[in-house]
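#lab-general

N.A. 3:47 PM
ok so I finally got the sequence cleaned up, no stray characters, all 87 residues accounted for. can someone with queue access submit it? mine expired

B.Y. 3:52 PM
send it over

N.A. 3:53 PM
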Amino acid sequence: MKGPFGIGPKFALATACSAVPAYAISMYFAPLFVIPLVPYAVLAVVGTTLVVVGAGFKLLSLLAMLRAKRAGELVTTGTYSLCRHPM
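B.Y. 4:20 PM
back already:
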C-alpha cells in the first residue's frame, strides 16, 4: 500500500544518497574543475541560469502531466511536444 506521498520519498532518498557522495567528490577534486580562461562570476551566472531554466521546464512538465493524468489523457503538448521524456 502506498503512503500519502506515493513513491516520492523513495526517489528523494535515492537522490540524496547519490548527491551527497557526488558533492563530496566534487569538493575533493575542486582544483580539477577550474576553468582558468573564464572568470568564476561568469560561470556562476551561466550555471545558475541553466539550473533555473531547467527547473522551470521540469515544473511545466509536471503540471502538464498532472493535468493529463486527471483527465485520463496522453500528454502530447507543452514540453512533451518537444521531448518525449522532459522530466
